[in-house]
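User: Design a sequence. Structure:
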């Protein structure tokens, strides 16, 4: 059966983190997890860490400003949930392409 709907575009990610999860300390037992996708991490990195506006950051990721806005909103919500509720934040997944100065390697 053919997938329905519009196929997802790959997002351009220029940063491959060395750390793939953040765990809370001091919480007894096994905490719940949330997933932060690679494109969400890249959006947070560009907007919050590098200080780019949404238009510039969207151009860097080769997506529309509206798509960037949706991605960053979801990322902020996931990070806030993880911090406020003491959950593990696991970084993985998403439709992205790692690009370093013109080189592109696909990840699904």
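Assistant: Done.
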């Amino acid at each position: 059966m053919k997938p329905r709907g519009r196929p997802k575009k790959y997002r351009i990610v220029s940063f491959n983190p060395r750390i793939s999860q953040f765990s809370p300390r001091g919480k007894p037992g096994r905490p719940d997890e949330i997933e932060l996708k690679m494109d969400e991490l890249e959006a947070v990195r560009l907007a919050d860490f590098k200080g780019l506006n949404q238009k510039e950051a969207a151009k860097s990721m080769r997506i529309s400003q509206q798509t960037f806005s949706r991605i960053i909103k979801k990322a902020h919500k996931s990070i806030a949930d993880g911090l406020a509720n003491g959950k593990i934040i696991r970084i993985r997944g998403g439709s992205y392409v790692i690009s370093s100065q013109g080189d592109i390697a696909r990840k699904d």
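Confidence is low (pLDDT under 50) at residues 102-106. The CA atoms of residues 29 and 56 lie 42 Å apart.
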